[in-house]
Design goal:
Largest sheet: 5 strands, mixed
Oligomer: single chain
Distance between the termini: 25 Å
Number of domains: 2
Order of helices and strands: HHHHEEEHHHHHHHEEEEHEEH
Structural class: alpha+beta
Length: 366
């Protein structure tokens, strides 16, 4: 079982119907046994209500007692309630948007007076830019034999690659793992909302010689979901270790994020621009999540990625961690991270999980 999904697999094994055997047959046997036991020790006695009291646990502790899938539902509801989107059409409207801005709610005020500010603005490359980049994607195919194992495993499992760098795991650091799994889960609805609005084509739509090595997803391409996920994780972990840290492009975490993003180009599924857009969105989502989980009240700024400017003159541009370094240091015209940080609303349920994750990280040498 992978680290990514192992946390959820721990739940349900200790309930009434689970047990090691599992399956509906074991559930039915357990139910029959419990019924027979009750009949034997209760019989036909009249049942009287016993002592009772209202809950003595604060909401965060009640959340901790819930099954993993329902904890995740609560956390996603809390974290996504402050996210909104602004869709920008072309001057002459098309079937795709020109840009999407992911917005986040400002601190202060109530739901009726909520104000939103940009978190990340993604501008779509033009179709001719994708067309020019198709040969670059095709050239990556020569790396497929070398990257085969990685690409296949990374279709479903990402956290084990992070755990190979840092001392985290479901036994050593269950709260850290759950925090990261929640981050992965948050990425999906956000990135899909951006993808569907921008409607960017896959490499195979420009050449029948790309021939991806794994099945091509049916959804649009930019931003890359894998890139967004890995940069979200890298940023969350960087901020867990140092709440004020910036992106260090050649750190092991961000090198890993670049590697996994590039693997999707090697597989024939993504353009380099998809990875670059995912990097910007992922960094911002990681910062947003950790800001909302900060006990002292966090802040986060905005970012912009202009796909029409992700170019080398008139030629398509590649993506790797030296390009990432230019992007995060304002040395790349396609990307900016303005110094406009402002407060986010605290997320009390999420804060309880981030607090436990911080405690685990601080005691990692135990």
């Amino acid at each position: 079982m992978s680290l990514q999904h192992g946390q959820h697999g721990q739940h349900g094994q200790h309930g009434q119907g689970g047990g090691a055997a599992g399956g509906s047959g074991a559930d039915e046997l357990m139910a029959a046994a419990l019924m027979r036991t009750r009949d034997a020790i209760v019989g036909t006695e009249t049942v009287a209500s016993g002592a009772f009291a209202d809950s003595s646990l604060p909401p965060g502790e009640r959340l901790r007692r819930m099954e993993g899938e329902f904890r995740l539902a609560v956390l996603m509801s809390e974290l996504l309630e402050d996210i909104a989107y602004r869709i920008e059409d072309y001057d002459t409207p098309r079937h795709t948007a020109r840009a999407v801005t992911v917005l986040r709610r400002r601190a202060g005020g109530d739901a009726a007076t909520a104000e939103y500010t940009p978190l990340a603005r993604i501008i779509r490359p033009e179709v001719e830019h994708f067309s020019q980049a198709a040969p670059l994607v095709a050239a990556y195919a020569e790396l497929r034999p070398d990257r085969l194992a990685e690409i296949l495993v990374q279709k479903e499992n990402l956290l084990p690659f992070v755990a190979s760098i840092l001392p985290i795991g479901p036994l050593r650091a269950p709260a850290v793992v759950e925090m990261l799994e929640t981050g992965l889960a948050i990425v999906t609805p956000v990135v899909m909302r951006v993808k569907i609005a921008l409607g960017c084509p896959r490499p195979t739509q420009f050449s029948d010689r790309i021939q991806p090595m794994i099945a091509e997803p049916a959804h649009p391409t930019l931003p890359s979901g894998h890139s967004t996920q890995l940069f979200t994780l890298a940023t969350m972990l960087s901020r867990l270790m140092d709440p004020g840290s910036d992106v260090v492009s050649d750190s092991q975490l961000y090198r890993l994020a670049c590697r996994i993003a590039i693997n999707r180009t090697v597989a024939g599924l993504h353009f380099p621009a998809d990875s670059a857009a995912g990097a910007v969105l992922g960094i911002q989502l990681g910062r947003y999540l950790m800001a909302r989980g900060a006990d002292s009240g966090g802040t986060v700024g905005s970012a912009r990625f202009d796909g029409t400017g992700f170019r080398n003159g008139n030629q398509p541009r590649d993506f790797h961690y030296s390009v990432l370094h230019e992007m995060v240091t304002d040395a790349d015209p396609s990307t900016s991270f303005p110094a406009d940080a402002s407060a986010v609303r605290p997320a009390p349920f999420w804060q309880t999980l981030c607090r436990r994750a911080k405690e685990e990280w601080n005691s990692r040498w135990s």
